[in-house]
Amino acid sequence: MTEITRLFDFPYYQLEKHNLDASLVTKSNGEWIKTSTKEYIDKANAISRALIRMGVQKDDKIAVISTTNRTEWNIMDIGVLQVGAQNIPIYPTICAEDYEYVLNHSESIYCFVSDGEVLAKVNKVKANTKVKEVYSFDHIEGCKHYSELFELGKDNSNQHEVEARKDTVSPNDLATIIYTSGTTGKPKGVMLSHDNITSNVLNSITRLPLSDGNPKVLSFLPICHIFERVLIYVYQHAGASIYFAEGIDKIGDNAKEIKPNLMSVVPRLLEKVYDKIYAKGTDLSGIKSKLFHWAIALGEQWKPYGENGAWYEFKLKIANKLIFSKWREALGGELTTMVSGSAALQPRLSRIFCSAGMQVMEGYGLTETSPVVSVGKYADGMFRIGTVGKPIDGVEVKVAEDGELLIKGRNVMMGYFKDPEKTAEVMTGDYFHTGDKGMLDKDGFLKITGRKKEMFKTSGGKYVIPTLLENDLKQSLFIEQIMVIGEGEKMPAAIIQPNFDFIKDWIEKKGHDIGQSSKDISTSQIVIDRIQKEVNTCNKKFGKWEQIKRFELTPDVWSIDGGHLTPTMKMKRSIIKDIYKDLYEKIYRS
């Protein structure tokens, strides 16, 4: 049996253990195109042979930029790694100037892109980089197609060179540099070795309930981020068929077609799914409406392991048959588990989805930790709502005196590329300083309480943890995004992006005389008063010094393209504050 010590060992392990007809599956022209394990390896080897003929040396850097997850990305990943080079994944949504920075900083010599939109951004800056050639996965006029490498690698007479290169790759060699999106400043290049990632994959596998018999998974979170990438290796090890969604807007359609057993999510996606379901539920009338709201209320009380007793479980069975079964059907009907990461999940949402038979296992990690530090698991009593599960094997979590979480293990990064000073700032011996605050309860469950840097002090000297207020208020159907402000000011306040879609329906149902534009909504006193009720309810749960005294609504949707959010949907606080400096001034200076 193949011993897995380097990332390219995973497909070979799958060939020996599972040998799937559908290892990687991508939709093209309306048809799901299956790539078997054997074909996956054969194509990766052809890529490796071609790269050697193109003069690619050990430790050269190859950039890969794809708008959606797809089979080609994975073939390139293995093909690049086998020759001792490094795969440099780049977020597709960043601007051309950031492409230029990452391509130059990483010293990438070739670049593979998914489509015309990405190609246009690369072509804009290519002349200012060391990139020799750009290849595309899509057929684009004027751009070389990546299949040219299959032609170049068709002759397998240099396969012995590929094998020799593989033999020279040590588990402790650099595998990839992942540029963190960052909420401020230029992205940092996180260096992860083969061992950083493989150890993390192998220690995470036991936490995922991937059943025997070729389970199906749906992949759509950006594969350029280490969270989804590690899961891809986990799926390969488990013998799961990986279906790549056409896009985030097609998840529902794709799930109905393929009927996945598991998928990874971010809290923002679950919030949107729930909001959509709730909006449809509010259109119901009579007994259907009563049943829908009864089921939701029941779901909000859900506790794991039958803690609510037999009578509750009996009622839940009825709710599942009448209401929640339709939710599952909307996602294919076979989905039993969702793995959530990247940000805090509302406990209320966790309860509702778990009650509906789609267990949400929340995890915690950072790019610098490859990424998994902890994750919940329903079996063996390792699931607790409001926590991110227990640390996985091989990872030690220590809570510093100031509450910061420190991580030690084989998964901790090699350092920041070309930046020993920044590396030294986050390391104390073998411990990585996460910048997150948290606690371990008496049973070993990890709870994240906020970001160390995001905690601020008002002019009165009182500390405020904005994420606690934000997570509470984001449970409101009226609020899509919220950023609590007030550092050095006399009181906490908030800048809020209303949930425009929900509010438009609410306006219609209530018969309010308000326009439907986002500007009309964000300036309407009726809407402001309604959101004030949400803020008032939240404030009751917090001390007087923490309470939000004032807020302003923004007229636009916070987005990645707009610069408000990172590609993993985290708020860029300093940029949001700068974009809405007029609202900030209005709150504190008017």
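That was protein one. Protein two is written in the same sequence-then-structure order:
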Amino acid sequence: MAVEQVRAGVDVGGTFTDVVVLAARPRAVKVPTTPGDESVGVGAGLVESAGSAATVEGLAHGTTTATNAVLERDVARTVLVTTEGFADVLTIARQDRPSLYDLRVERPRHLAAEVVTVAERTLPDGRALEPLSDVEVDRVVEAVAACEPEAVAVSLLFGYAGDAHERRLTEALEGRLGVPVTRSSALLPQFREYERASTCVLNAAVAPRMAGYLGRLDERLPQAAITVMTSGGGTAGLDFVAEGPVHTLLSGPAAGVVAAGQVAASAGFADALAFDMGGTSTDVCLIVGGRPEIATEARIGGLPFGTPAVAIHTVGAGGGSIAWIDAGGALRVGPRSAGAVPGPACYGTGGRAPTVTDAHAVLGHLDVDRALGGGLRLDVAAAEGALATLPAGAGDAAGVLAVVRATMARALRRVSTERGVDPGDLALVAYGGAGPLHATALARELGCAAVVVPPAPGVLSALGLLLAPLRHEALRTVMLDAADDLGTVLDALAAEATAELARQRPGVAPTLAPVADCRYAGQSHELRVAVPPDGDLVAAFHAAHERAYGYAMRGEAVELVTARVVAEAAPLLDALPASWEQGEARPDRRRRIGGDTGAVEARVRDRAALRPGETVDGPALVEQPDSTTLLEAGERAVVDDAGNLVVHLRG
């Protein structure tokens, strides 16, 4: 019998690992995440979805390994090597306070265990002002060795402009120590010494753990061509990610946003809000013209990193978020989560604290007769017991949902109204295992035009991994007049980006897109602008500045600070699936549930039974293996031709 060859997308979340396998009809499963070794859960999900006899020939993977390492400060002992006089670059940072009026606030602790300084100095034009001597190289190597590091970060002042000193130190350290060494001029050749040093240290600190995980995954799937999702909305090969794990700090959320943009477009909406509520957190992002915005700086655990990242805003509000009472007696939900272990009380896996999922179970939103991911079944009595631990009058199940929705609404406003974008022009694309349970309530509060729930919302991030292109962004700080001829700079970056993709996938023919970070002379921050076909970058920047800030200063000089070229190659899946394997449809039924106006009798329908053109009127629940959609009274969902559930809330 022929062995089935499959391609798969696997997204590891805080509570569940989601797997989508491409077969005759895409199949999706959710299995519990295995925190000790995520590759175990990945293997279990692939066996459950594809079968033990199938061979995985291509795997696109979203991982939280680097993310969790930073958030939990479970990182390698890292030594930073930097220019003499700049030992405190990570401590001084930007000389700002995380909370201006809080006298007890503590600045996030950086990840460098020790700092070793080097007697050298490079000028902003790349010339050596103070040469690096052989004696100094030997001294630095011995000083670093004495710190007994597990990883080293080399980030010298103006190393992006002239990398000779960084290269010499890196070669000497690698030859002497035998531990991973990250060189800032290779990882992030752009200016701003604090952000570059922070990125370099983050990369070094997670490199050993990431390399170990990727090695185990490669051993588990030796025949698979594995790519890993990066923060910038594309995938990259194992070797690239092992060398630069900082590129994966927003791995999973970025994949979901890529798919959400295509889902919105399939429902007729070019602009949307991506709303991904999982077990541990909620990720939101603005999508314009079908594509998410790419930021040139992001933060994790309060620490900045400068590698390209989808502009996602994350809050600690998920299905596993724990409800608690603060010092003032008010009900709070999150950011602490029950996670995969011990999990919500209703999972029966040892959890005792009340969570958002427990509130849904008590209100009847979840089917006690349907097995959840990994064969879990709901224990409503345990959920009731957990919620009963909250003080009388402090909050009930409905109160827990109201509080967590307020947190998520603030996050959605952060990426829309607070940036001058009217939510009334946007669709809310709801996904993640818990997203569709809250979508219409949030969309009503924000005034969104519609809610779009894709055919497989609980595993959309895993699907996004298959839809994401192989991607590399080559960049360099150049400090030029934006009116200058940029051909030489962009040609060099295009060659670099093309060569990197060819290294990861031989024979690839990528598309190339030039991008520029520009600013008015004297400004301290830049705007990312696509270089137009006619090459008039100045006009493009004026227009972008006017869109972002409401005005343009067309008489002012425009500086090109950092030039970039984005290279992309074909993904494992070139379009959204036309249909999904949803399992056997059960007959329609009714269940009493808690809603906005109290307990109501709701119609319960299986997603597998719905066909394009059909409608579902609330109060109702639409159930499927990976998620449940909640419709309140007066709401009507229509199944469109792409299989999406679309709820129009205006007009």
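The two ends are 56 Å apart (CA to CA). Keep this in mind for the problem set.
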